Amino acid sequence: MAKRRVSAIVKIQLPAGKATPAPPVGTALGPHGVSTMEFVKQYNAATEDKQGQVIPVEITIFDDRSFSFVLKTPPTPFLIRQAAGLEKGAKTTGKETAGTITDGQLEEIAKVKMPDLNANDLEAAKAQIAGTARSMGVKVG
Questions:
Q1: Which DSSP helix (H) or strand (E) runs through 28?
Q2: 17 Cβ contact list (under 8 Å, min separation 6)
Q3: 106-136 pLDDT per residue, tens
Q4: Angle between helical axes of 122-136 and 103-113 (0-180°, round to 10)
Q5: What does each C-alpha distance from 76 to 4, 7, 24, 52 come to in angstroms?
């Protein structure tokens, strides 16, 4: 079997189980000639158990207009806001605190994000997550 050549890699963040062919999916895949409805069906089927989350997806588009996709873990700020019960982070991060998360929640987020982080161990992942929380105005501890 001949090897398929990759013509593009597209990365987008979509709500789990609720993707539609409208933008951003249509505008990202349309120029590459990919069937947006086919992608939407496959993505929604793959993410139906993660309702309410934002799931980034990396779509590899081949020369023959076929595609494959890899689901990533939800964005760190989304997980931090979810753990702290916040709608959004602080307006002025250095001066105000939007909320707090416990060390246990921090560790749980680090375990979820570990496959997508460039951290060697759980402690390094926790440090990265804590930095993101700090920049959002969320206290850890």
A1: helix 25-29
A2: 44, 47, 48, 50, 51
A3: 888 888 888 888 878 888 888 888 888 888 8
A4: 110
A5: 33, 29, 21, 15
- pTM: predicted TM-score of the whole model, two decimal places: 0.72
pLDDT given at position 43:
85
Task: Tally the C-alpha atoms within 13 A of residue 125's C-alpha that lie toward its C-beta.
Answer: 19
Residue (of 67, 68, 74) closest to 15 by Cα position: 74
- Which two structure tokens, joined as six digits, stand for 111? 């375990």
C-alpha–C-alpha distance, residues 4 and 63, integer Å: 7
82 token code pair: 């979810």
Residue from 56, 12, 71, 59 nearest 35 by CA: 59
Say yes or no to pLDDT of 92 above 80. no
Distance CA(78)–CA(92), nearest Å, equals 18
DSSP labels, 74-119: PPHHHHHHHHHT-SS--SSTTT---EEE-HHHHHHHHHHHGGGS--
- The DSSP bridge pattern shows strands 54-62 and 6-15 to be antiparallel
